[in-house]
Amino acid sequence: MSAKSKRSPRGSNSNLTEADEAEMDRIVGRPDSARSRKSAWDEDGGMDNMGFDRPSSARSYREEEEVGRIETTDDLFPTDTSMDEKKKAEEAAPPSGCCGKFLGGIRSMWATRQLQFEESTKNQELYIKTTLRELIVYILFLVILMVLTFGMTSSNMYYYTKVMSELFLDNSFNSNGQTFRSISNLGDYWQFARGPLMDGLYWETWYNNRNVSQDELGFIFYENKLLGVPRIRQLKVKNGSCKVESNFGHVIDDCYGPYASGDEDKSTFGKANGTAWSYQTSEQLDGSGHYGILTRYEGGGYVQKLSTTKAKSLAIVDDLKQNLWLTRGTRAVFTDFTVYNANINLFCVIRLLVEYPATGGALSSWSFRTIKLIRYVSVGDYFVMACECIFILFIIYYIIEEVLEIKKHKVEYFKHFWNVVDILVLVISSVCIAFSIYRTIAVDTMLEKLLENPEEFPDFEFLSFWQMQFNSAVAVAVFFAWVKVFKYISFNKTMTQLSSTLSRCAGDLAGFLVMFCIMFFAFAQLGVLVFGAVIRDFSNFWNAVFTLFRIILGDFDFNSLQDFDKFLGPLYFFCYVFFVFLILLNMFLAIINDTYADVKSDIALQKNDFEMTDYFKKGYQKMMDKLNFKRDKIVDIQKALASADMDNDMVVDFDEWRTELKKRGYADTEIEALFAKYDVDGDRTLDESEQKQMAVELEGQKAKLDEEENEIEKDKEMAQAGRKMGVTVEEFSVLQRRVDRMEHSIGSIVSKIDAVLVKLEAMEKAKLKRRETMAKILDSITEADGLDDEEKRDQMERLVRDELDKWDQDIETNSTGASSGSDRSRTASSRPPSSGYVGSDF
Question: Where are the membrane-spanning stretches (predicted)?
Fold first, then answer.
């Protein structure tokens, strides 16, 4: 038997110790780098792209280089401090095992920037990862919220409201073309009730005057089912609800004041034989209050239900008219009914209101509430229901997140604006979820009662009112949800311009707002007092406030002011536009504009807290390193395959294969696994076909890696090309301003230096000139004959004093105030006293 067949599959080194392997390396001549390469291969788990299982805990060779560190003395000889820190780290570490992994996964679900504040401030990469994770999760939440909100609405709502409103509001009831919008007295209401109201409620014939079938009765426009029967309700005030002035007491006997709940007339009147003539409370009617043009009206009153047919309803209306159901005390008449369109699954709850003020006349108003009360009918509705379930899970998730953040930060949590926005969105969403559940139950109950008695009035008013509030609350939640996006993109300095501008100018705006409000409300009160009796836009304070805002936006009725008073109207308009619009409003814009310019300049000079691009560059580099490492391993195996056949018999046995790969630093497990993959017949040798198969697969994987790397490089070049387009106009302007300021500053400094040099040069020339003059004077005095020593000393002292005075005058002329002052002090301190001692010095 040959030596090749006698060797075990793992070779003789299957049980070698590390010392034995080191000795073998020395004998074979394998370098230390090969052993490190072998360690990297061991920890990488082999070639994962070759189909080998890689342990989850293993690191790649590049990753080991990333996390590699140099051991310090604390690692080799731990001190008490390092031991304490390690003990704390062990205590803070999650428990090992499946339970620890599960708890760690649960904890990572709520890993936010605020919960990981200490860690994220020290680790930029962790901060970026946490921000990206929060942003991605929040985008999913936002998408679900958009599906919910727009799943509840459609363009059909507008057209449905338009059709129903035109039917009841725009059809005339007399030859003068009066409609419900222009009702002006008690008689007009009866004409409307007998005409457009009856014609709109009961469609009993086709366009060819043929009667509709029994099944088609009760459909408006042949499509909209009238639910139950309509109802008419009125509210009255009793006689004596106001007081007649004594001078008119003998002329005016009755007095019906404006509507007030305390002045309601609840007595039975007229025929006194039904609900139309007897008062019922809001509890009996299960009604709710309503805000009209003049005031708020309670849910009780005198009620008359109509019928399911036009003839019976006309008879009821005529009976009410003949018996004077509407009287001087009538203050409001409500006409309520509800229709349902099965084609679009929408309800339209309609209320037509005519108010009769104490002044006489009538004011008409209306309410058309198109809502979707039956939520789940079509496939799209059930998809929305699935999104609603996901939305509830998101709300629970965010509630837990906010509770954890409040628990950690305590009162400090509520000092941040975005945290308040989070709580607001969660509260609104929770209320909407609760109402949605209540609405579903309430609608089912009401429809069951309606089906049991189809001639009853179904009061959807209360439910429709709260459905509209629900829609408004959802709209507010969507608004704040979109605003909250700024919370997650604030890491970019460009995205912080708005918040920085508003926060920086908040103080100036607050002070300016006080001044603006004083002027604005002064003009509002002036308008109410001057024009309130004639012009509707100034009939009360709030109308005046909104009218003045409309003037700022360019929507105003100047003719009404001018028609009221040729002088006061234009004067009021001119003063308001001048002081509020031209001065105060432009000051407001100037404050914001200046602050924005400062913020732009500061942002242009500062660097981001962290750059998201750096994070992606690092990820790109890691990816490229991993690809290069895999390609290097493939190249090593290709070289080993080419040189493993030492005896040139076209067959590579396991020992030859193992020897070649051992030289390149591979572990026994990797060598055996790779060999076994291509040793198809299991004879512990690789024949020519098996070697060819290995070479083909290795070359294919190498080409695949090259293609992947080229694709990544191509994407990077495209991104870099986009960034190399140039700077923006704003960036260029900022740089230009900085260069101009720098040139101006440097020019000023250079001019000052030149002036100082000129003055120093002049002083130096003067000093040399006086020194020469002094020498000549001293020589002349010394050589003078006929003078004794005392006279020479006096003359010399006088000449020196004169020269010093001239010197002081020149210094004052050629130097600045500060420098000349210091020069004079130095000169004075160096001036000799008028004594013979000076002469002796000279």
Answer: 135-160, 382-400, 420-441, 470-489, 509-535, 571-592
